[in-house]
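Supplementary Methods. Inverse-folding protocol.

Structures were first reduced to a discrete structure-token string of length 78. This string, shown here, constituted the complete conditioning input.
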């Protein structure tokens, strides 16, 4: 996976590892895991909960928006 592949993820407010597997079917499990870790370290992805992520784009877009925080927390709860 390339860094440009993260643009596909900007359409999703949050996603999990299974979503990445479905998007990038030709990638190996290890490759997906390594890219997730790399993107978290560079700040492109934000870890919300174990196995659930969002992109920096959405965090910046909704910065300071209390409703976004409620939406994410309620989504993660279920």
């Amino acid at each position: 996976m390339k860094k440009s592949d993260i643009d596909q993820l900007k359409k999703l407010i949050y996603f999990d590892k299974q979503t990445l597997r479905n998007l990038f079917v030709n990638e190996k499990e290890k490759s997906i895991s390594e890219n997730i870790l790399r993107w978290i370290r560079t700040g492109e992805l934000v870890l919300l909960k174990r196995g659930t992520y969002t992109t920096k784009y959405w965090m910046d877009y909704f910065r300071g928006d209390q409703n976004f925080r409620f939406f994410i927390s309620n989504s993660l709860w279920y």
